[in-house]
Amino acid sequence: MLDKHLSGQGKAYIVNPEAHSRAGVEEFRRLLMENGFSYSVQCIIDEDLLFGYEEECSAVRQELYVISRIVEFPNSNTTP
Q1: Is residue 12 part of a domain?
Q2: Distance CA 66, CA 60 (A)
Q3: Contact 68, 10 (CB under 8 A)
Q4: Buried b (16+ CB within 10 A) or exposed e, 33-42
Protein backbone atom coordinates (compact mmCIF):
# COMPACT_ATOMS: atom_id res chain seq x y z
CA MET A 1 0.00 0.00 0.00
CA LEU A 2 2.76 2.47 0.90
CA ASP A 3 4.68 1.63 -2.25
CA LYS A 4 1.63 2.44 -4.35
CA HIS A 5 0.49 5.63 -2.62
CA LEU A 6 3.59 7.33 -1.17
CA SER A 7 5.18 9.77 -3.62
CA GLY A 8 8.91 10.53 -3.74
CA GLN A 9 9.13 13.14 -0.96
CA GLY A 10 5.84 12.23 0.74
CA LYS A 11 5.45 10.94 4.27
CA ALA A 12 3.05 8.44 5.80
CA TYR A 13 1.94 8.56 9.41
CA ILE A 14 0.89 5.37 11.18
CA VAL A 15 -0.19 5.05 14.81
CA ASN A 16 0.32 1.71 16.55
CA PRO A 17 0.34 0.57 20.17
CA GLU A 18 3.81 0.61 21.76
CA ALA A 19 6.07 -2.24 20.69
CA HIS A 20 5.78 -4.17 23.96
CA SER A 21 1.95 -4.18 23.59
CA ARG A 22 1.73 -5.84 20.17
CA ALA A 23 3.13 -8.64 18.05
CA GLY A 24 4.90 -8.32 14.71
CA VAL A 25 6.89 -5.16 15.46
CA GLU A 26 10.23 -6.46 14.21
CA GLU A 27 8.63 -7.86 11.05
CA PHE A 28 6.83 -4.54 10.38
CA ARG A 29 10.09 -2.61 10.73
CA ARG A 30 12.05 -5.14 8.67
CA LEU A 31 9.49 -5.02 5.85
CA LEU A 32 9.66 -1.22 5.77
CA MET A 33 13.44 -1.28 5.37
CA GLU A 34 13.42 -4.16 2.84
CA ASN A 35 10.96 -2.23 0.67
CA GLY A 36 12.96 1.00 0.56
CA PHE A 37 11.38 2.97 3.41
CA SER A 38 12.94 4.67 6.38
CA TYR A 39 11.04 5.47 9.56
CA SER A 40 11.24 7.24 12.87
CA VAL A 41 9.12 6.42 15.90
CA GLN A 42 7.81 8.83 18.52
CA CYS A 43 5.69 8.10 21.55
CA ILE A 44 2.38 9.98 21.45
CA ILE A 45 1.69 11.88 24.64
CA ASP A 46 -0.86 14.40 23.38
CA GLU A 47 -4.36 12.99 23.96
CA ASP A 48 -5.77 15.26 21.21
CA LEU A 49 -3.86 13.18 18.65
CA LEU A 50 -5.72 10.10 19.88
CA PHE A 51 -9.21 11.63 19.68
CA GLY A 52 -11.70 8.98 18.61
CA TYR A 53 -9.41 6.11 19.55
CA GLU A 54 -11.26 3.20 21.10
CA GLU A 55 -11.63 3.68 24.85
CA GLU A 56 -10.32 0.21 25.71
CA CYS A 57 -7.04 1.14 24.00
CA SER A 58 -6.63 4.44 25.79
CA ALA A 59 -4.50 2.94 28.59
CA VAL A 60 -1.97 1.61 26.04
CA ARG A 61 0.59 4.18 24.97
CA GLN A 62 0.78 4.73 21.23
CA GLU A 63 3.68 5.19 18.83
CA LEU A 64 3.66 7.45 15.80
CA TYR A 65 5.62 6.11 12.84
CA VAL A 66 6.77 8.72 10.32
CA ILE A 67 7.61 6.82 7.15
CA SER A 68 9.35 8.06 3.99
CA ARG A 69 11.12 6.59 0.99
CA ILE A 70 14.86 6.09 1.14
CA VAL A 71 16.27 8.43 -1.49
CA GLU A 72 19.37 7.20 -3.27
CA PHE A 73 21.64 9.64 -5.05
CA PRO A 74 23.61 8.74 -8.21
CA ASN A 75 26.92 9.49 -6.49
CA SER A 76 27.11 8.18 -2.92
CA ASN A 77 29.27 11.21 -1.98
CA THR A 78 26.45 13.57 -2.97
CA THR A 79 24.02 14.88 -0.36
CA PRO A 80 20.81 16.77 -1.00
Answers
A1: yes
A2: 19
A3: yes
A4: eeeebeeeee
Q: Is 43 inside any structural domain?
A: yes
57 CB contacts (<8 Å, ≥6 apart)?
Answer: 17
Side by side, the strands of the sheet bearing 37-44 are 11-17, 62-69, 37-44
Render pLDDT for 36-68 as a digit per residue (tens, 0 to 9).
999 999 987 666 666 666 565 556 788 899 999
Domain that residue 38 falls in:
2-69
- Model confidence over 8-18: pLDDT tens digits? 788 999 988 88
Q: Measuring CA to CA, which residue among 39, 48, 29, 46 is closest to residue 69?
A: 39
- Report if residue 74 sits inside a domain: no
Give the rounded distance of the alpha carbon of 49 from its chain centre.
Answer: 15
Residue at 79 is within a domain: no
